[in-house]
């Protein structure tokens, strides 16, 4: 008889599993994290962290540490051999509407170490290495897992839920009976190595190619460079002497650099696969276990981590009985289309740089289409990923401007000194209700307080409400004491006559939130999800609609009308 362990079993301690563990632990959900590898990885596989992932890390409180082990990259240069250097197409990420208007280059082993250190320092959790899942079955109430310990003995336990973050060859996916259709599209080799005689800008990601060869070169933190290489026959990709093969490609493309002894080299088949479904009962899959695609654009690890960021808060609510199991269906409904978008975007770049058999001159047109650069950087950075098409929002009478339900919630600078940003307000594991009064301050404050109180009554501790008044209004002693609650609000934030205390009130001194959320004199109530997407936005007069919106996520407490 197997023992019962009221916890979530996470299989795989790569970036996806580490992010999921964090999101569950910060919501007080017990986690067991196992990994069949012998120990932490010492090699760099994925090496790109995009803007949306950095916004996630800032929310988690570790962006500052990642910045210390990363190199900023302004974007990509596409070296078409028939064009002069000044005319080479680029995707320049420095125009993105985010604090992270670039992307980071990082050694994945360093990146994973930062995540492990954070998990251990905050939650005393370490991955269990040399611990392998060897059997899995489920019933209506739990999942039975057979786990081989480092000494070879097998322990059988029941867990509430099991999530496979165990990669392309996922054991969990196989045990759950989930199909993983797809195709092989190319072969690729990569190498971390020191270079000499480099004559191109090492701040950028540099794509070199001709009709039959491809090479990507970029500087990593430290001594090494990352080089990717591909060609259609596979002879050079899988050559026994990797250094010589890479040098041959570099010479034939006229790059001019000299390749040293590789620190690490590998080769693999590029596949496009996406799982038929992301869940079977109490077994779920996440990250590479659910989708894999061309590395073009460096979106893979980022998309996988965002999968975990989406799943974490939902699984926590279900585990704690705050939400029905059906909430987990929204994970696939929201993230599978994103996986498909990533695959489509990766293949679009793939066709430009690895469209073997087609002359580069004939591929240039992809980069000349109107809006190509803007679309590419928005998609690859993750800022344009959204859940608009599947967002469920109660009907309202008054349409509002700004980000729609299911779109990324933009950041905004609220106070310049001392600095306070909107993302600082969001840095907690719950939904956030923003109350932004318009011209009718008294009425809008009243509506915001009433909504906050009713949300707390129905869904205790699931929503944090914050008042964001305009910074050009003033709080003063009202001449009529009976109307003190109707006083306007100042940047100084003196007194509590608004009904929002110091920790739940911050003025918008810059006007950025008004501009980025399209807020006018009508005022606004904005509900932001724990994963930094807009849940719903409405005028204060329609506050009751937000009660209906939250019914899809949480069970109201006993005795409260739904």
Descriptive overview:
The chain is of the alpha+beta class. Helices cover 28% and strands 24% of the residues. Strands 1, 2, 8, 9, 10, 11, 19 and 20 form an eight-stranded mixed beta sheet that branches. An eight-stranded mixed beta sheet has the order 6-5-14-15-16-12-18-21. A hairpin with a 5-residue loop joins strand 26 and strand 27. It is globular, with a radius of gyration of 26 Å. The relative contact order is 0.12. Mean pLDDT is 92; it is low at 473-495.
Q: What is the structure about, briefly put?
A:
By secondary structure, this protein is an alpha+beta fold. A hairpin with a 5-residue loop joins strand 26 (524-528) and strand 27 (534-538).
Largest sheet descriptor: 8 strands, mixed
Gyration radius, in Å:
26 Å
Total strand segments: 27
- How many H/I helices? 15
Distance between the termini: 41 Å
Strand content: 15-25%
Topology:
Blueprint (H helix, E strand, L loop, with lengths): L2 E9 L3 H11 L5 E5 L12 E2 L1 H10 L2 H5 L3 E3 L1 E5 L10 E3 L10 E3 L2 H16 L4 E2 L2 E7 L4 E6 L5 E11 L6 H5 L6 E12 L1 E2 L8 E5 L4 E6 L5 E6 L11 H11 L5 E2 L4 E11 L4 E2 L2 E3 L5 E2 L7 H20 L9 H25 L6 H4 L1 H4 L3 H10 L31 E3 L4 E2 H4 L5 E6 L4 H18 L4 E5 L44 H5 L7 E5 L5 E5 L5 H7 L12
Keywords for this entry:
single chain, about 550 residues, alpha+beta, 8-stranded mixed beta sheet, 15 helices, 27 strands, about 25% strand, globular
């Amino acid at each position: 008889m197997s023992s019962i362990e009221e916890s979530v079993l996470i299989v795989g301690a790569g970036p996806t599993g580490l992010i999921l563990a964090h999101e569950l632990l910060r919501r007080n959900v017990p986690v067991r994290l196992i990994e069949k590898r012998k120990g932490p990885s010492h090699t760099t596989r994925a090496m790109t962290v995009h803007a949306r992932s950095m916004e996630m890390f800032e929310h988690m409180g570790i962006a500052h540490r990642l910045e210390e082990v990363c190199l900023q990259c302004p974007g990509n240069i596409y070296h078409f051999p028939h064009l002069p250097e000044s005319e080479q197409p680029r995707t320049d990420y420095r125009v993105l509407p985010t604090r992270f208007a670039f992307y980071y280059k990082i050694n994945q082993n360093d990146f994973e170490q930062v995540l492990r250190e954070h998990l251990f320092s905050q939650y005393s959790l370490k991955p269990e290495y040399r611990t392998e899942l060897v059997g899995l079955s489920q019933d209506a109430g739990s999942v039975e897992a057979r786990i081989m310990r480092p000494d070879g003995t097998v322990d059988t336990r029941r867990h509430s839920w099991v999530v496979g973050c165990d990669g392309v060859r996922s054991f969990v996916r196989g045990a759950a009976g989930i199909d993983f259709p797809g195709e092989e599209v190319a072969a690729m080799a990569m190498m971390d190595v020191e270079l000499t005689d480099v004559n191109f800008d090492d701040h950028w990601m540099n794509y070199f190619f001709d009709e039959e060869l491809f090479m990507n070169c970029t500087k990593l933190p430290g001594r090494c460079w990352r080089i990717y290489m591909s060609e259609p026959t596979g002879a050079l990709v899988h050559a026994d002497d990797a250094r010589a093969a890479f040098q041959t490609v570099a010479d034939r493309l006229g790059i001019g650099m000299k390749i040293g002894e590789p620190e690490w080299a590998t080769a693999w088949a590029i596949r496009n696969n996406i799982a038929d479904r992301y869940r079977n009962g109490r077994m779920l899959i996440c990250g590479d276990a659910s989708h894999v695609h061309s590395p073009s654009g460096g979106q893979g690890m980022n998309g996988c981590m965002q999968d975990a960021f989406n799943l974490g808060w939902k699984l926590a609510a279900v585990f704690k009985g705050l939400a029905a199991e059906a909430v987990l269906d929204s994970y696939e409904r929201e993230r599978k289309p994103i996986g498909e978008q990533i695959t489509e975007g990766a293949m679009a770049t793939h066709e430009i740089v690895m469209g073997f058999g087609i002359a580069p001159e004939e591929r240039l047109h992809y980069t000349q289409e109107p809006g190509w650069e803007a679309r590419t950087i928005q998609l690859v950075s993750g800022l344009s990923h959204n859940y608009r098409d599947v967002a469920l929002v109660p009907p309202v009478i008054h349409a509002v401007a700004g980000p729609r339900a299911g779109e990324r919630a933009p950041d905004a600078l609220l106070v310049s000194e001392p600095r306070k940003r909107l993302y600082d307000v969001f840095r907690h594991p719950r939904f956030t209700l923003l109350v932004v009064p318009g011209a009718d301050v008294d009425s809008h404050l009243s509506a915001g307080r009433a909504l906050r109180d009713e949300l707390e009554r129905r869904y205790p501790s699931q929503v944090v409400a914050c008042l964001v008044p305009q910074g050009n209004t003033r709080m003063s002693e009202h001449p009529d004491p009976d109307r003190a609650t109707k006083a306007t609000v100042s940047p100084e934030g003196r007194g509590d006559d608004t009904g929002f205390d110091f920790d739940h009130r911050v003025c918008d001194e810059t006007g950025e939130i008004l501009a980025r959320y399209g807020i006018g004199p009508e005022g606004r109530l904005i509900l932001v999800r724990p994963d930094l997407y807009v849940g719903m936005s409405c005028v204060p007069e329609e506050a009751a609609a937000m009660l209906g919106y939250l019914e899809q996520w949480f069970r109201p407490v006993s005795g409260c009308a739904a």
